[in-house]
Each structure stands twice: as C-alpha cells, then as structure tokens.
User: Fold this.
Amino acid sequence: MPATAEEVLHVTEEVRANNCTCPAAALAEFYDKRAPIDLFLVVSDEGENTSHKGSRFAQLFRRYTEEVHARARCVFVSFLRDGDHGTMLREMERAGIQSPQYRFDVSRPDLAKFDSLLASVLLDAQQALEQQELALASRLEGSVTLS
Assistant:
C-alpha cells in the first residue's frame, strides 16, 4: 500500500486496470490490521464490480466503523456522467452511511475545481478534529470534577 504521494503516483503509472474494480480490497488492509483511519478519500468512477472476500465497500466500511474506528468517515471524489448518482454512494446510503460526494464529469473533468475540493475536505477534517478535541476536553473535565 503506498504511503506517500510519490508512491501513489508511482502506482498510478505502473499498475494497469483489467476490468475488475474492488475498492473493498484497499479498505480490507486497514480493517484487517485494525488501523484507525479518520478519513478515507475514495477517488473512483464508482464502478465497483468485484467483492473482497464476499464484501463490497459499503458493507466493509460499515463493519470498519462498528469494529475498528467509529468516527471514520469516507468522502467520494466521483468521476461520473451527468445524472449518474454513483453506485458506491448509493450502496453507502443503503447501509445508513452518509458520505459527501464531490463530482467530476467523467468525459471532461474540470480540474480547476480541485483546489476548492481540497479546501472543502480539509475544512471538514479540521471541523471533525475540533469536535474530537472538544469531546476529549469535556471527558477530561468530567473526570477531574469526579475525582
């Protein structure tokens, strides 16, 4: 699994897709290791057509949040045709998981929107971190008061 931006770019140059798409396989590595990840950024055409050990992405993400990290979130950057909601996003919604979706046209992606996308994701992550810090401070304050 690539760990740096440089490694990700290397993977995109070297690995060729072969008509099978299995985003659950990437998530499975973090699930199996019980690695707590706060935010998964899924860049996809949402064409998941292969399961991983019987689970699709939404099913595995639900288990991940139940068993590994309850506050984990997933954001989709989806390359879709106009009017297409996205298969993976629809499956997440059916599983009761709300995930923001940033859309790009699959035929003509407007990459000028990428900066605003990144700013929005970073703002969302910052707000989530602030909420976690407030919750922790509240718990600590409660434990000091009880002592």
